[in-house]
From TrEMBL:
It comes from Vibrio mimicus. Keywords: Signal. The lineage of its organism: Bacteria, Pseudomonadati, Pseudomonadota, Gammaproteobacteria, Vibrionales. Residues 1-42 form the signal peptide. This is DUF2190 domain-containing protein.
Length: 128
C-alpha cells in the first residue's frame, strides 16, 4: 500500500475545546483530544506546539473549530534546573511558559525531549 500523502513543515491543526480562547504563541495541549491552554491541561495531556494565531471558540461546541499549531522545536524559559546534561531527557511544564527537568511526582505535563539548552532558555521537541 502506498502512502496517502506526505507532509513537509511543522504546522498542524487540532480540534479546539469549546468556549475557549487560545492566544497566538501560547503553548497548546491536547486534553481528551481537544486543544486547550496550559491552565486546562492535566498531567496526561499532550503538548503539541504553539498556536500560530489567536483562536476564539467562544460559544462553540467542542471540536467545532480547529486551531493551527506549529510543532517545530520550541524554546521556553528554564526554571533553572535544566542543564546541558539534560539534552535527550524529557522536560516538563512548571508553568505556562517555563520548563523544568522535574515532573513533580508526575503532576506536570511533559513538554517533550530537550534538544538544546541556552543561557536564556530550553529548546524542546514536542511529543507529536
Amino acid at each position: 500500500m502506498n502512502c496517502i500523502a506526505k507532509r513537509f513543515g511543522s504546522k498542524r491543526a487540532y480540534p479546539q475545546k469549546g468556549n475557549t480562547q487560545l492566544l497566538s504563541g501560547v503553548a497548546v495541549f491536547l486534553a481528551a483530544g481537544l486543544a486547550v491552554a496550559h491552565s486546562a491541561a492535566a498531567a496526561n495531556s499532550l503538548f503539541v506546539g504553539v498556536a500560530t494565531e489567536f483562536s476564539d471558540a467562544t460559544g462553540l461546541a467542542d471540536g467545532a473549530m480547529k486551531v493551527e499549531v506549529d510543532s517545530a522545536e520550541i524554546k521556553f524559559a528554564n526554571v533553572g534546573d535544566i542543564t546541558p546534561s539534560h539534552v535527550g531527557s524529557t522536560a516538563y511544564f512548571a508553568s505556562a511558559n517555563k520548563l523544568s527537568s522535574n515532573s513533580s511526582t508526575n503532576t506536570r505535563v511533559p513538554a517533550g525531549v530537550i534538544t538544546q539548552v541556552d543561557d536564556d532558555g530550553v529548546w524542546v521537541k514536542p511529543g507529536v
